[in-house]
Design goal:
- The chain is built from 18 helices and 16 strands.
- It is α/β, with parallel strands linked by helices.
- Helix 14 links the parallel strand 14 and strand 15.
- It catalyses: lipid IVA (E. coli) + CMP-3-deoxy-beta-D-manno-octulosonate = alpha-Kdo-(2->6)-lipid IVA (E. coli) + CMP + H(+).
- One of its GO terms (cellular component) is plasma membrane.
């Protein structure tokens, strides 16, 4: 009865979803692509019902990058596998294109109405579904159970804050968690919280994101540009609304001779000689952040306008040449380049109560992190990184700005932090192999012979 009520609400909400997608599509045209797929209507023919389709749902950018590790492992073990990749955001779908091979399929996650879910499952007939990290939808779980499609939650995480919110909807959430075939958690703490909601946790495998390999070409280019610039560089990475303004206000409050000391007791100006780079988390905010930079009295140089690299100091013409310049990373799919370019990264999402973005990618690129007080999305990884010397924690953006600038300007401390970041990332690898083995074993347990792929 409770899910029936939920289903009615989701059915009634469909016109509002269409409106939301059209509005988001104004700034991110990717949301206007194949809109009918959200409701279970597909322009392409259904794939053969040969049992070779493995469905992976990666809602957004971070989940898609983590899924890449699992997909690579499954292709090795199941060479005939056809990948069905679904997403909930335009950035996730854009990133997911890189994972596709001939014969693979990509579509939007079906809206969680009973009709859309049934049409999705009838059209694609996946042999197994793998949800990445946090995505639990009651009708989707129930639809898979009704059709006998094993549905698992992989690389699963559940923060204390999310657990508290989920408990308020326990009447709806508990049946959905209980109906999953298996759950493989990132940490023991995640496993305990998931079990408390009735999830069938069968293993704790670590975080897939440690196994993700940064784009080597991008990393090399970023490092080369950093050396060419000849100045310390600090990046606000994957920033969220409110954090750019806090950084810019803090920078604007510094006027010469505000500086930090190097190891030789020379001083470097925090604004004039330290280069600052902002990379917003969401592409629809690129123009907004560019305008924000200028409103705070800085010139802006956008990555989209660079050709052979960022501008040299003093390269801007006119009035902009007398203003400090803040660089804006307004491109998609280039985080390895940005981490290669930066000496130190301020962790976006951690200076507002948003839980923090993924710091593992920074560590894998050898870039130490300064994080704010809010890291509940990656609580254990944040603590481990801090213990390893790959990250440090501060209370405010002002403290973060000062700590990051100081580290970027002190060569030996910076080298030690970079080595610690690299070692931290290497130490925690292995989740991909464990998760791949678990998926293959589950397929076998459901009498699906791996040789059939």
């Amino acid at each position: 009865m409770t899910r029936l009520l939920y289903s009615v609400v989701m059915w009634l909400a469909q016109p509002f979803l269409r409106l939301k997608l059209r509005r988001r599509g104004v700034q991110e045209p990717g949301y206007l692509l194949a809109m009918e797929e959200h409701f279970g209507y597909y322009a392409s023919a259904a794939p053969p019902a040969d049992g070779n389709t493995i469905w992976v749902h990666a809602v957004s950018l971070g989940e898609t990058r983590a899924a890449a590790v699992l997909v690579a492992g499954l292709r090795e073990r199941l060479p005939g596998m056809r990948l069905l990749l679904t997403h909930g955001t335009a950035t996730g779908r854009f990133e997911g294109v890189q994972l596709l091979r001939p014969g693979d399929l990509q579509t939007w996650q079906p809206w969680d109405s009973a009709g859309a879910v049934q049409r999705f499952l009838a059209h694609f007939q996946p042999r197994m579904g793998i949800l990445m990290e946090t995505e639990i939808w009651p009708n989707l779980v129930a639809g898979c159970a009704q059709r006998g499609v094993p549905l698992v939650l992989a690389n699963a995480r559940l923060s204390e804050q999310s657990q508290r919110k989920t408990r308020k909807l326990a009447w709806l959430a508990r049946p959905a968690y209980r109906a999953l075939t298996a759950v493989w958690a990132q940490t023991q703490a995640d496993a305990l919280r998931l079990r408390a909601l009735g999830a069938p946790v069968q293993g704790v495998f670590g975080n897939l994101k440690f196994d993700a390999t940064p784009n080597a070409d991008q990393l090399t280019i970023g490092q080369r540009w950093r050396h060419q610039s000849g100045r310390p560089l600090v990046m606000l990475a994957s920033s969220r609304e409110g954090e750019e303004a806090a950084l810019l206000q803090a920078l604007a409050s510094f006027r010469p001779p505000a500086s930090v000391a190097t190891e030789t007791d020379a001083t470097i100006s925090i604004v004039g000689e330290v280069q600052w780079l902002i990379v917003p988390r969401h592409p629809q905010r690129f123009d907004t952040v560019a305008a924000l930079i200028e409103r705070h009295g800085f010139a802006v140089s956008r990555r989209s306008a660079w050709h052979d690299g960022p501008p040299a100091p003093g390269a801007l013409d006119g009035a902009e040449s007398v203003r400090p310049t803040v660089w804006l990373g307004d491109s998609l799919g280039e985080m390895a380049l940005y981490y290669g370019l930066a000496d130190v990264a301020l962790l976006g999402g951690s200076f507002e109560p948003l839980g923090g973005q993924n710091l593992i990618e920074a560590a894998a690129c050898g870039c130490p992190v300064v994080m704010g007080p809010h890291t509940f999305n990656f609580a254990e990884a944040a603590e481990q990184a801090q213990t390893a010397g790959a990250a440090q924690r501060v209370a405010t953006m002002m403290e973060g700005l000062q700590a990051a600038a100081k580290l970027a300007c002190q060569a030996s401390a910076l080298r030690a932090a970079q080595h610690a970041a690299d070692a931290f990332a290497r130490t925690h690898r292995g989740a991909g192999a464990r998760l791949t083995e678990a998926v293959v074993q589950l397929l076998a347990a459901n009498r699906i012979e791996s040789s059939s792929f």
